Every structure is written in structure tokens, then in C-alpha cells.
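Possible regression after last week's pipeline update?

I re-ran a chain I had predicted before the update to compare outputs. Posting the input and the new output here so someone can diff against the archived version. Not blocking, just want to make sure nothing changed silently.
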Amino acid sequence: MNDILQYLIEKLAPLGYPKLVTLLMAIAAGFGSAATLVTKLYKLYQDRKLKRSLHPFYTDLEIERATRYYVETKCQNVAPSQDEEPGRTYAFAAREKVIPFFLKKAFKPHQDDCQFYIVLADSGMGKTTFLLNLYRRYHEQFFGAPYQIKLFPLGFPDIDKEIEKIEDKANTILLLDAFDEDHQAVQDYKKRLQELILKVVHFREVVLTCRTQFFPSEDEEPHETGVMRFGGEGGERLFRKFYLSPFDAQDIRVYLRKRFSLLQRAKRRKAQQIVESCPNLMVRPMLLSYIEDLLKHDRPYNAAFEVYAELINRWVEREARKVAPDRPDDYMKQLYQFSREIAVDLYRRWRSERQSSLLISGREIQPFAEKHGIKLSEMEMKSRSLLNRSAREEYKFSHKSVLEYFLAEEAVFNAAFRQELDFDGMDQAKAFFEEMIWKNFTVPFFERSDLNGEYSVKDGKTRVLTRLPAKVLPEITTLKLQEWKAEDEVLLLRGLRNLQQLHLIKPVTSAQEQELQAALPETCEIKMGLLRREPLTISDVDAVKVLGLKPAKWEKFDVWRPLEYIRNDYEDRGNVVFDRATGLLWQKSGSEGFLTYEQAEEYVDTLNREEFAGFYDWRLPTMPELMSLLEPKKQSNGLYINSVFNSNQTWCWSGDKRSSSSAWLVHFTTGDVGWCTMDDMNSVRVVRS
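New output (post-update):
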């Protein structure tokens, strides 16, 4: 139907609107749907007329985006930037719908005696959207529109000439968009404002929009026009000032209902979840408008920081392509760097109590940028960044939560700042920090295929460490790693919220230990040099990885040997040998003969009943413990074991099983690892820890 109507409009437009409507009503009557047809026709005609009248100043796409899902703009008499989070100002400022004010009062004859209006708003608050919809609504009035209306973006080339072309100024309402994007205003806003006022003084009404932070302070926001009144009251004509209000919860719900129809309930629910994860950002119409972009990624946003990252990146990209289309990547990098650096600086000032608020004076911005090597103009940093100006020419982030996002990001990637950052009073920064660690370090670490160790959860059962799904990680209580690699980020351990004990088989330096301890939950302890003591059942397939083995040759046979050898530190204590390197106490000799596996277990029980060497907790060693006795080369006793031990025990059983009928063992005669059925005969050397 829309295509047919559009075709008819194009073909019959020369007839003029009244004749066109009459003709199509006659056609529609034949089909019994005149009212519906005329309604559709009128809307399509107005859309076409709107786009034609705004060309070339606004593209069809810009107009479509501004009008399609429009939620009524509200205004207030207090700047939203007076609070840390714009969404909190609702209770402190009177809010009213701004378009009805202009249509029913300001633009009506004898209803309002003000000629100049200025509408201020922070970045992304919908200033252009407001003007486009005001312009549209004025045009759509069937009655009560005695004046013509014009809308111009002040950043458009030679826009002054376009304004001068208008002949009947006294009967024309002039809407001027984005004073902050006017090239002359950027150079000298006071001079340009006076020049502009003189150019437009003969228009019926003038509505000017601008970013609030474009002016150095609230005192310097336009108030007096410099144009005198004549007649009864006299005096100077003043600007009537409005601030656009952030969206409230109801506005957001209305927008989502418009954006996603009843047939898109799943999208609407997902969009609502995204909104709830960062409500203080979504009160800005521009940011909320990117909700579709978030949904298009077709991936879940499981953490608030992911939504903030996406929206901030798109914000920066939007500014870069507007200001520096020839070098957007460089501009984005500079603007992002400025935002992060100044967030850290504001935090340091606030934490050191040099100032009570997270603010920076406008006079300090340029010196700050020069100090940090940021190549942006002062105006770009003030009006294009994520900073907003307060009434006293002080700048702060448009949302404290954005500042906290940058602090968290800096802490994640800057170890020095991480030590400095105190999360007291920065709860959102802490939440972002934990989320970033989990996403960037914890989950990827446990998805690796080269992990070597064990873990246990609340049930206490020891399991082989393999690739673990993210849902298991919060349940880990004990983690044992064969080795902590220097390139691994210690922060990943913060994601293990219930970790109580970290065992590192290969010891680390004291500096590394301190770094690990700082990253771990406060209740977690670190133990080093501890080999697994709980027995496992290990298949042939898992043995190479779990036991840390490599293929080798002994004479003409293929064998397995350890990937690494422990540098033992033995102490001979008579019947037993203590290894300081592993903390294990070994039986010096062992069983006098060869035993089946069942007999080996009985042998251990006998030693414990007799309290051998004064202890009753002897056991069969696990394979890592037994392998720790292996030497890389044959020793003076003709075995691959230190001569402090008795040389009669050559093939020794371990407590690790291969299956229900076989178990693993170490061959000290050949220096390798293997397995035997439990009916085979081997020696026993017990251990305790």
C-alpha cells in the first residue's frame, strides 16, 4: 500500500495537494477505505514535504532517525549536569513537554512576548532531534500556523547566506541548530553570537540550540541579546533559557515500545535488560538510540562494562566522524586517551582531598592535554569529549559511572595504578573492574588446553584440571597448578571468588608470591612445592597431560619420562628421608619383596598400625610424588634415584590407578613411567606429607 501511495504522490503531485486529496479520496471511496487511505496519504505527503524542505541541510536518514521513534522531549529550568548522574535530577527540577509549549504558546500571536529562546543540553540529549520534531509538528498543524518556519544547522557551510535569503522575516520562525558546531562560534562565541543576533533580529521568533558545556560557565550562557525593546515596557530583549531533560523510566519504556513492536517482544526484553545494566547512561536519548546496535551484535551482554564499552566507543566514533572524517582513527584514539587520562587525574585529586568533587577547571584542560601529549584543541576537549561543564566553568564526566569505567579499565591494564586505586566510594568502578577481569583474564585462562593441575569444588573431590566452563569457576575452592607462568596475569585469580587455597607445585619467587597474594581473595592462602596427594584414576589418553610426560627411548623401547625434574633437597633421618623441596617424608627402604597391588595396600596398613618411624598416616605416593624422586641421569647406585635411598625398590607402585584392574608405577631402573595390572608384582616405598 505504501509503495502504491508513494507512486501516486510522485505522479499526481503537480495537481497540488487539495486536488490530489480529492482525487485519491474518490478512488479510495470505491474501495471503502477513504479514511485510511487519506491518513496514509497525508503522512507520506508530509514526510516527503519535510525531507524536501530540509534538503540539503539534513539527510533523509537523519530525519528518519529523529522522527520515527520520537519520544516527547521534556525540558526543565535547572541544568541536569548539576548532579553526578543525570537521572537523579527529576525530583529537583520542574519538567514539562517542550514542543507543546512552543506550538501552543511561544509561536502563537499574543501568547508570549519573548522573541529569543535558547535550548541547552549536554552531549547526546537530543537537541537536533527536538528541533526536527518541532519543525515537523509545526508543519503538520491543520490550523493555527500563521507563520512559516525554517530550520538551519549552524555548522552548515555558508548558512548565513541561506538565512539572508528569507524575505518575509517578520512572519518567519527561525530554528537554529547547534551553535556549538558553528565554525565562527568555536573561534569566538561571544562575537559570533552578537553577529548572529543582529542577522536574525527581524525574525518572528528565534530558537537556538547549543551544548551546555560549550559556554565556559553558567554565567556566560546567553542571557541578554543586546537588542532593545521599544514601546511600553522598554529594556533589553532577553533569551528565555531551557534545559532538555534526560529520559525518565517512563520515557525509556515508551521508546522501547515504539522501537520494538509486539512481534518483537524478545528484542524488547533484551533491550530492557541492557537498559537495566546501565540505567544512568540510557537516560540520554542518543545513547538509547544505539540499543539496536547492541542487539545487532547478536551476542549477550552479560556484564554492564560490555554495554558501557560499546556505547562509549560509539560515542567517540560519532564525534570523530563528525569532526575529523579524514582521520577518524587518530581522532578517536586521542579523544579516548584524553577521557581515560583525565579520569585518572580527577580521581587522584579527589582521593588526595585536594578537591571535594570530581571536577577540573576549564583553565586546566589545555595544560593537562599538553602534559599528556594529547593533540586535541581546547574546544574539542571541552565540547566533544565526555565532559560536561558545570555552572562555575568546571568540567566533569557526563556520568560519574563513565569516569568509573575509565578508572576500572586503567586499573586492569596498569599495575601501578591498580595498587593506587581505592574502591571506597567507587562501587561501580569496583564492579566494572571485577567484570573486566572475569571476561578478559579468568575465563580465557581456564579455556586453555595446556593447563596442568587439579582443582576441587565445595564437595572436596579432586578433579583433573582441563578446560572448564565459566559456570564452574566461581565454585572452585582449591586450585593446584604445576607451574605459574610469568606471562599469566595474576588478576585472573580474583575471578575465583570462593578460592580458599592455591597450590603451586613449582615454587615462585617471593616477589611473584606477593603479587599473587595481592590478587587473591583475602581469605585465600598460597602453598608452594606441594605435589598432589589425593589419588586419581588416569587413563592412557590423559596421562601425558595430567602427569606431565614426554615420549622417550630406553634401548629400543618407547617409554614415558617426566617433562621436568625437581631439584630435590634431601635430609637423611635414619629410617626416613625428608625432601625439603617438596615437603615430603619418605620411607628410606620399602617393602622387602615384590607385592601385588592388594598386598601393597596391606603393607601400608601394617606400617600405620605399627606406627613406623612414629607416624600412622603413611600412604602410597601419587604419581607426581613418586616421579619427584626420579633423577634425569643414572646415579652411582645404577638407578635413576638418589643413593640416599635403598636400591632394592626398583619398580614401585603408586596410589594412582589406570583402571579398576591396573595402576601406575615408576621404573627406577630405567627412569621412566608405566603401568601394570594389579596382579603384577612390584615394590612399595611409602610417603607422608
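Follow-up from reviewer: compared with the archived run. The first helix runs from residue 2 to 12. Marking as no regression found.
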